[in-house]
Amino acid sequence: MVAARTRILLVSGSTRGGSANTTALRTMSAVAVRPVTAVLYEGLSSLPAFNPDDDREPLPPAAGELRRLIAASEAVVFCTPEYAGSLPGSFKNLLDWTVGGGEMYGKPTAWINVAAPGRGAGAEDSLASVLRYVGAAIIEKACRRITLPRQAVGPDGLVNDSGFRAEAARVLDDIVSAVS
Questions:
Q1: Contact 76, 40 (CB under 8 A)
Q2: CATH class assigned to 6-179
Q3: C-alpha–C-alpha distance, residues 145 and 100, integer Å
Q4: How many CB atoms are located within 10 Å of the residue 73 CB?
Q5: What is the DSSP string of 51-95?
């Protein structure tokens, strides 16, 4: 019997070209094996500023696409940098767009943190707070810090460090176990 596919949406909290967070998620997508389909969300920069007056049908197209992608996924993984001790504004804006639609309610969710040692705790704490607020089902076992040595990024833009890749695969396995 072939296991059903598990669609996991990967969301980077960074808009920066060459972001370690986006690189980590691209690598996670590359190491995904059956039954996982990992899809990288690439619309963060196109989301309009959240305005509660706009949180009704028809939604702005980029916000509607975000909600459709979340709804179509069995789980979501976030990876975000920390700015000024918290979440980057553009990423918090993305999360604000998830409040009114309810797509995150009960959605199995995890995050990885690839910040340098001693950094990133503020972003983790803020993200956990928002995810609890929207009712996401946090998969604690899959939430973790994974060391991402800068020199481990190859010319293809993916992490070539075997330890990182193995840990990313374990995160996906933990998610599949949680949603099965």
A1: no
A2: alpha beta
A3: 29
A4: 24
A5: -GGG-SSSPPHHHHHHHHHHHT-SEEEEE---BTTB--HHHHHHH
Minimal CA–CA distance to 13: which of 130, 103, 162?
130
Q: What is the phi/psi pair of residue 10, to 5°?
A: -105, 125
Burial category of 69 from C-beta neighbours within 10 Å (exposed 0-12, middle 13-18, buried 19 and up): middle
| Residue pair 167/146 in contact by the 8 Å Cβ criterion | yes
Q: Which sequence spans correspond to the domains of the chain?
A: 6-179
Residue 147 CB-half CA count within 13 A? 8
The Cα–Cα gap between 104 and 135 comes to 7
Partnered with residue 6 across adjacent β-strands are 36
| Global confidence as pTM | 0.95
CA separation for the pair 68, 77 (Å, rounded): 16
Tens digits of residue pLDDT in 121-166: 999 999 999 999 999 999 999 999 998 987 899 999 999 999 999 9
